Each structure stands twice: as C-alpha cells, then as structure tokens.
Structure to design on (658 residues):
C-alpha cells in the first residue's frame, strides 16, 4: 500500500508542475511544532470505491484552511476522519499528536468541533437547548443533568447573534438562522479546532457572508484553527489563508489563494474553463468560471492510476 | 449582523413554567387515582369514603377497597408511567416518532414470553415473579429480533418501523400458536393480549414498583444522551456521544420498563406510542423534565382509562341488562389510541 501511495504521489507531481503536491505542502509551517492536525498517508474507502488515497497534510494552529474540490472528491470524508468519526483504512490522522480514530468520542469532541453539512429536524427543541448540546463533550452525561446553562453556551449564542431568539423552536427558523444556530452548537463545544462542512450550502448570499465573517472574526478572537469545505472558490480565495484542493481522493493543490487559484486549478480540479483576476480593492484572486469542460478534455487532464 | 434584534423575552405566565405544569399534572394524577378507587362495582361511594377516612364500614367493603381497588389503582399508575417513559426513550433513541413498545417487537415479545411461560405451566397469575422474568426475556428477544432484522438500516426510521411491524406480527402469530396448543390456559392468558387491570393485588405491586423505579431512574440519567440522539447520529457523535453505546443503553431501559408493565397489566395498546407525543407537546424537548412528565402523563392515561373502563362497564351492565360485563382497560386505550394515532400521523404528513 505504501509503495503504491508513493507511486501515485510521484505521478501526480509529474503531471502538475507548479502545483504543490508534496506531502509537506509548500511554504507552510507543516513541520512546525504547533501542528494541530496531521494526516499521514491517510486512505479511506468503501468496498469497491476508494475515497481518499494517501493524503499527507499538516494544519498548523490558527490556520484558516479551505478545502475545495468536486462533489465526491473526499472533502467531507477527510473532515470526518480528522474528527475521529471514521476509521481510516490506511494511514492515520493525529490530533495534537494522538491518533484521532483511537481517541474516546468525548475526548475527540473536546479537541475538534465538526459542523456537518445538514442535520435532521428535532421537534420541540429550542435554540438554547440545541446549542447547549454542544456542552456534552465537556460535561458528560451526568454533568448535563445539572443546571441548564453555563457561560460557554451563553457566549456561543452571542457569538453568532442568536441570543434574542434563544427560546424559539429550531424548527421555526429559516435556513440561514438554523445554520447559525448549528454553528453556535459547534462553538459551544469550546474546541480549539473547528471543522465546517459546507457551512454556506442552502444559504442566500447575505447569510453566506454572515456565517463566513462570523467564522473569520471568531478565529481571530479565539485563535481557532478552522478547516472548512467550501464550494464557492471565490469565498475560499477571499476568506481562507490557505486552500487545499482535492481531486479523486488526492491533494491536487495546496497553498495560499494567490498561488493556488489559477486557471489551471479551475480546469484540473473543478472541471471548468474560466479566467482568474485580482480583486481591485482586496487583492485576492477572483474567478470567472465560463463553462464546464467537456469530458474529453477532462480525460486528457486526468492522471488515473489503474 | 442586523438580525441581532434582541427582543426581551415575553413575560412568562406562571402556568407556563415546567414546575407549574408538573404540579398541575400531579394534581391530575391524584384526581384520576381517586376516581379509579370510586369507579368500581360492589361498594358504594360512601362505603369507599368510610374505609379511606379512618376505617369503619363493613369488612367486605374494607377488603374490596384495601385489598383489591388500592393495589389495582397503584399498579395502573406505575404501569402507565413505565409505558410512557419507555415510549419516550424508544422514540428518542430510534429517532422515530412512530416507534413505541407496541411496534418495535418489545410488547409482543413480552406478551409471548408471559403467555409461553404460562402455557408451559412455569408461571401464572398466582406466580407473578416468573411472569416478570418471562416477559423481560420475551421483550429483549423481540427487540433483539428487530435489531438483527433491521441490520444496516437501523438508522432509517421508516425502515425500522416496517421491520418492527413485521417482528410484532410474527411474535403475535407465535403467541396465537401457544394459545392454540395450550387452550386450557386461554381464560387467564387473554388478559395479557388486550391489557387488563382486573384482579391485580399487592403482590403485583410489590414486584412492579421497585423494578419501575430502578429503570425509570436509569432512563432519567440517560436524558442527556437521549436528547443528543434526537438530534441525529451525526450531530450526536460530533458532539461527543458514542451513539451506538448510548442507544443500546437506552433500549435496555425501554425494554425493561415495558416488560415490567406488560407482566403487570398485559399489552396496553397505544400508551407507549402516544404518551411521548403528549409529553413533548406539554413539556418541550428538555428530557430532564419531559421524562418525568411522560411518567405522570402515562399514569394519568392508564389510571384514567381504568376508571373510565370501570364506569363504562357499569353503564353497559345497566344498558344491556347483562349479568356481569367487564370492559378491559386495554380495549379502551386501544380504541382511543387508534384515533389519536390517526391525528398524529395526519399532522406528520402535513409537516412534510
């Protein structure tokens, strides 16, 4: 397995010059002592389908990383593995030096808070009650039986600006409001690392910006390490200080937005032809996707290992 | 964020606080308990009052009230409470509003256990301990069968419900087989199938209440994991709960509570399925409050139904000029419950 992984990596480098594909990334504090999440030869698959094929990635404390890639390229799977919710088929993820898959559930949840893509409706649950559930990792089943609120819950409600409707049922909220409440639940875990799986899906533009700006602000205030899966490359380029692009279970690009967001990335990772400019005021790259590449062109770009 | 309009919470009226609701419910429990004591045949209201308020009255009335009606009422209360809590635990753990002991193989399994033990001559109404053990074994077997059948589709409420109905049907069929093979026991055994509080005595009460108290307390201690399970497995495990382990512990509590209730009063239809909906509507989603609430509501429902069934029996005797006619409480809860279930199901489809 290890030999095969190396083979894959080498091939990837040959195929994409100028794109970081090495295990350590490029120009990042990967080897620095304050690495909080480190994936080593991380692979995962279901019978008949490999999702991740030998990911090597280090994320330092305080970084804000955007994970991008097509649907099914393994972004969500990576977050679940890194949060210890799935067991890798090969390799491992270290959280502060400990194997994530072997940490007890509660211990892992104290280190990493993961906001899933979607959540089922829970009848009768109020905003405050849902956010309070984030305290389970710290307080445990019996600790949760005591007094109803603590300051972390209150702070989490305030962080996302939902204090005003803490007693409303979650079911009665709009999609954007619900997403903020779920973000508050993740914040109530009070973990130093925050994983967000498509936090802006289903939201209108205004609420997308609200959620992303909240994340950026809290990350600055609390020195949080944030990894978020984003579909909008422009959001990733604007808000993240590092972009990791996945393609077919491997890292296709890794670096700051200014280096990574190129027309080549659009074509090879996202399968669209487009142009990339620079935002006149902010200085971050801006993409103008024009049209999807036809399958023949995609095939030429692919470097499948059979 | 301009949506940050912090409106002051509306002043809460006193009756809206959970404590006030719990108090009102406790009063209601006492009311139906008294009603149950007065509802039966054989002793007049004055006779009951005389016995309760410091002896007096004839020895016959005293025996009926103290040795028959009082334990019957207490058993009805605790069995109802057990079923209410078991239903809420099941619905939370399986995240399925249509789950209940009746449709997850637990109740039919417990009935099969009780009937089989009776049919084999191992137990009877005069040996309640054996019935409790047999009902528990049957309840766990029924739940285990569902667990095996549902396999990988356990996370899907609809699929689990379908398998639950299947398992319940199979177990009911097996119960019918036992009844056919051992027809001599038919008379006493039928009471388990429909659910009845007739003839429950202090022996039943002494067995039931410690069992219900222990498992009810265990269920309450699980209220935090149960609340998380209601939020879905993904969210629950992200928040730090081992969802599989939490669900297993919850199911053990639910099965034990159901088996205790079934061994005492038989398969009371729809109580475990509908009381949780009522409890959530009255007390909200905080299970630390709602689980005790479900216990009180279950007690009110079963004891109230018992009182109503006895009153109806008296009326029917007069109306039909029958010599002796007893409406079992299970028939009443099933009848009313089926109607309520229709309403719940309608509301659920409307919400989609």
């Amino acid at each position: 397995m290890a030999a095969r992984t190396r083979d894959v990596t080498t091939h990837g480098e040959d195929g994409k010059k100028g794109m970081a594909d090495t295990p350590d990334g490029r120009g990042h504090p990967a080897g620095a002592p304050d690495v909080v999440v480190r994936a080593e030869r991380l692979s995962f698959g279901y019978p008949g389908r490999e999702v991740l094929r030998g990911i090597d990635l280090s994320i330092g404390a305080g970084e804000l990383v955007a994970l991008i890639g097509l649907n099914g390229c393994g972004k969500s799977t990576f977050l679940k593995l890194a949060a210890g919710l799935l067991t890798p088929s090969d390799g491992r993820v270290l959280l502060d030096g400990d194997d994530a898959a072997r940490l007890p559930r509660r211990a892992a949840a104290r280190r990493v808070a993961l906001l899933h893509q979607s959540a089922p409706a829970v009848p009768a649950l109020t905003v405050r009650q849902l956010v309070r559930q984030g305290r389970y990792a710290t307080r445990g089943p019996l600790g949760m039986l005591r007094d109803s609120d603590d300051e972390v819950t209150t702070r989490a409600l305030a962080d996302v600006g939902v204090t005003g409707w803490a007693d409303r049922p979650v079911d009665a909220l709009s999609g954007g409001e619900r997403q903020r409440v779920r973000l508050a639940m993740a914040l109530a875990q009070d973990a130093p690392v925050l994983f967000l799986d498509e936090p802006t899906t289903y939201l209108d533009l205004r609420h997308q910006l609200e959620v992303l700006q909240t994340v950026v602000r809290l990350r600055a205030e609390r020195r949080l390490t944030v990894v978020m899966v984003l579909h909008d490359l422009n959001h990733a380029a604007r808000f993240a200080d590092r972009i990791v692009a996945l393609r077919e279970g491997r890292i296709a690009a890794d670096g700051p937005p200014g280096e990574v967001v190129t027309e080549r990335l659009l074509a090879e990772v996202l399968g669209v032809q487009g142009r990339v400019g620079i935002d006149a005021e902010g200085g971050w790259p801006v993409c103008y996707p024009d049209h999807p590449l036809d399958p023949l062109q995609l095939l030429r770009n692919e470097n499948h290992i059979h | 964020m301009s949506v940050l309009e912090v409106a002051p919470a509306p002043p809460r009226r006193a009756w809206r606080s959970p404590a006030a609701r719990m108090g009102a419910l406790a009063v209601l429990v006492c009311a139906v308990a008294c009603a149950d004591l007065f509802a039966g045949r054989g002793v007049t209201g004055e006779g009951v009052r005389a016995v309760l308020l410091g002896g007096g009255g004839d020895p016959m009335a005293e025996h009926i009230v103290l040795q028959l009606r009082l334990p019957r009422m207490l058993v009805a209360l605790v069995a109802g409470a057990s079923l209410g809590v078991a239903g809420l635990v099941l619905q939370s753990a399986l995240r399925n509003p249509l789950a209940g002991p009746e449709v997850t193989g637990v109740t039919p399994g417990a009935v099969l256990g009780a009937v089989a033990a009776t049919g084999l001559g191992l137990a009877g109404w005069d040996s309640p301990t054996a019935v409790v053990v047999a009902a528990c074994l049957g309840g766990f077997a029924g739940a285990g069968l569902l667990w095996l059948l549902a396999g990988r589709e356990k996370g899907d409420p609809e699929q689990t419900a379908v398998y639950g109905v299947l398992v319940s049907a199979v177990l009911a069929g097996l119960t019918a087989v036992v009844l056919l093979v051992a027809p001599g026991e038919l008379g006493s055994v039928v009471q388990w199938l429909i659910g009845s509080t007739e003839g429950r005595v202090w022996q039943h009460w002494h067995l039931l209440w410690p069992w219900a108290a222990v498992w009810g307390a265990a269920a309450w201690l699980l209220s935090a994991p149960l609340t998380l399970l209601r939020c879905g497995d993904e969210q629950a495990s992200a928040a730090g709960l081992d969802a599989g382990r939490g669900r297993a512990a919850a199911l053990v509590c639910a099965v034990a509570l159901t088996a205790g209730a079934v061994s005492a009063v038989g398969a009371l239809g729809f109580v475990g399925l509908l009381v949780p909906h009522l409890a959530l509507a009255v007390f909200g989603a905080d299970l630390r409050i709602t689980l005790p609430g479900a216990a009180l509501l279950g007690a009110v429902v079963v004891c109230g139904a018992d009182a109503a069934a006895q009153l109806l029996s008296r009326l029917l005797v007069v109306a039909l000029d029958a010599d002796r006619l007893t409406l079992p409480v299970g028939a009443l809860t099933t009848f009313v419950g089926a109607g309520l279930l229709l309403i719940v199901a309608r509301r659920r489809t409307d919400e989609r």
Summary: The longest strand of chain A covers residues 35-46. Chain A touches chain B at residues 83, 85, 104-106, 108-110, 113-116, 119-120, 122-126, 129-130, 133-134, 136-137, 140-142, 144-145, 148, 161, 163-165, 167, 177, 185-186, 189, 210, 214 (CB under 8 Å).
